[in-house]
Amino acid sequence: MMPRHPHQISSIAIPFLPNCDRSQTTWFCLVGAIVLSFVVVSTGRAQSPLTQPDWPRFLNDDFSGSAKLAKSAPDSIASLDWKSEPKFHWALDVGDGYGIGVVRGESYFHFDATNDSERLRKIDLITGAVKWTRSYPLDYRDMYGYETGPRCSPTIAELNDDSGDAQIFTYGVAGQLTAWSCDSGDQLWTASLNKQFDVVQNFFGVGSAPLIIGQQVIVMVGGSPEEQQSLAPGRLDRVVPEGTLMVSLDRSTGEIIWTGGDDLASYSSPRTIQIGGKEHLLMFARDHLWVLDPTDGKSLGKVYHRADILESVNAMVPIVDGNRALISDCYDAGSAVYDISVNDNQATFATVWKDPVGRRRSQSLRSHMSTPILHEGYLYACSGRNAPDSDFRCIDFATGEVNWTALDRRRSTATRLGDVLLVLKETGSLHIVRATPDRFDELAVWNLDENTPNRPALQFPCWSAPVVVGDRMLIRGDQTVLCLALPEHNPS
Predict the structure, then answer these.
(1) In the list 10, 110, 223, 273, which could disulfide-bond 101, CB 3.0-4.6 Å?
(2) What are phi and psi for residue 396, nearest 5 degrees?
């Protein structure tokens, strides 16, 4: 017998009373209905979810970093009660790594490292109970002393059959790409891509989420000639690419379909862009922004964008609006927006606006590991490399004009929920901000970095943007994932 959830009521029966007349029975039914309504509302059963139930990949399935509102959601999410302390559902202890997990239905999947192994766990989203755990050995040492564990989120892809199952793909810090069954946790196949393509270790290992296009799983690899394995650690300025920036594998078998792009890996993740009615692959690599044909990996064009500093990385995922794309770095190059066209299998990049290289104080946006949110023509983003030179700001996507800045001297990440931004400082406080270009309009602050009688605190660093599904949000600190309730609403 399955235990009943403490906040669920399976049924309430209102009997017909044989010794009462019709008016008395009607009265009893009316009272019973009122009691039922009260109980249902108080237990949350009448609460319709604010958002759709899945978050299948890093930044959600449209790469926007935004939750998709349910039809029952109110017109303004900002109108909900954000000032009250959020209801705490459960907490999950996590191991090494910096990424947050993904959600399919009532299951949360978390990828981390513990005891010299990388580990994937399936968690009951309602109760926080672990359904299964799978792991494999990990041999990795970070050259800068950062945690030994995944830097990126898994990716879920539904199967095109009648099984009702889905695949989940993990890409570990040492380049191990693995396909698993979401239902059973069975390992379907695995490939050690760093070894297969002679990848010279990047500064912080591998940190790019897999992309699914049809029957392909596409990942950033950035391999080199075998003899370059003897280079001194960290000397990426001496490493030569070998045409394996991107690698496509068959989802079912793990067999290589194609390789493409002559560049080294970054900490961005591949995404798609529609140009001229056709889907293309967009990749912000170590040195360039690339456009590839996803059917065969052929390079259609690239544009250079990287700071002239050895120990610099590109990490944000390109922001796309139509055929327009923004890329950004925090070290020296700042941001640039391009209108991308493809004609006769050649991509061209027309500059819309571009920050002055080297003039950090004059740059509109300096994105590091946090990807901006684009909403109604404006970018909302953390700008800066380290805490002392960072802030959260609003930028006009079309012109680069900065509308406002706030939350100075702290790095942050953000997720959008309708007209609200959930801005998570790396220290653990969550700032609920109205998404408006007019001003920094802070609705509430949740001090998740502080313990409460029924909830543990988040620990520094909090480097993953929150995940929002149904009526819940998942927020990660260094050692803990919290599952909290979104504010209640009464759909009409």
Answers:
(1) 110
(2) -70, 120
122 DSSP assignment: E
Q: Is residue 11 scored above 90 in pLDDT?
A: no
Q: Are strands 467-469 and 88-93 parallel, antiparallel or unpaired?
A: unpaired
Decide if pLDDT at 263 tops 90.
Answer: yes
Say if residues 360 and 330 touch (Cβ distance below 8 Å): no
DSSP secondary structure string, 277-341? TEEEEEEE-SSEEEEE-TTT--EEEEEE---S-TT----SPPEEETTEEEEE-SSSS-EEEEEEE
Residue 136 neighbours by CB distance under 10 Å: 14
Q: What are phi and psi of 236, to 5 degrees?
A: -70, -15
What average pLDDT does the structure give for the chain?
91
Tokens found for residue 196: 């297969």
The pTM of this model reads 0.90
How many Cβ atoms sit within 10 Å of the Cβ of residue 320? 20
pLDDT at 28: 42
Angle at 289 between CA 283 and CA 295, to 5 degrees: 45
Q: What is the DSSP letter of 387?
A: G
Residue whose tokens read 């983003």 = 381
Distance, CA of 245 to CA of 258 (rounded, Å)? 11
The first and second tokens of residue 154, run together, are: 């898994």
Indicate the pLDDT class of residue 492, thresholds 50, 70 and 90.
low
Respond yes or no on whether the N-terminal peptide bond of residue 461 is cis (omega within 30° of 0). Answer: yes
Pairing of strands 66-67, 412-417: parallel
Instruction: Label residues 408-417 b or e (16+ Cβ within 10 Å = b).
Output: eebbbbbbbb
Alpha-carbon span 481 to 456, nearest angstrom:
10
